[in-house]
Please model this.
Amino acid sequence: MKLPQWLGQTIELEESELTKLKFDIVHKSGDNLAFCELKMNVYSRCTVGRVEFMEKFNKFTKLIIGNQSFRNCIKNFGISNIFLIGGVLFNI
Model:
C-alpha cells in the first residue's frame, strides 16, 4: 500500500524511483512516523548493508525535499517527526 493511502488520503503521487521506495516497517504513533529498513548480516554484510541504508535514506530525503505533494501528504495527516531507522539482523 502506498503511503498516502495508508494515511487515509486520496492524493496520487507522481510515479518515480523515489516514490516507489519500500521500507520493511512503517509505523505511526501520534505525530511521529517511523520508517525502518532491515538487513540480514548473512546476505548483505555490515559494510554493504550500511551503504544500502545510506542510499535508501538519501533517496527518501530527496523525496521529502523535492516533492511538495509528498510533504503536503505528511503535513495534512499531522506528522511532525519522521524517523529513519536502520537495523542489521545477526544470526547468533
Remarks:
- The radius of gyration is 14 Å.
- The mean pLDDT is 77.
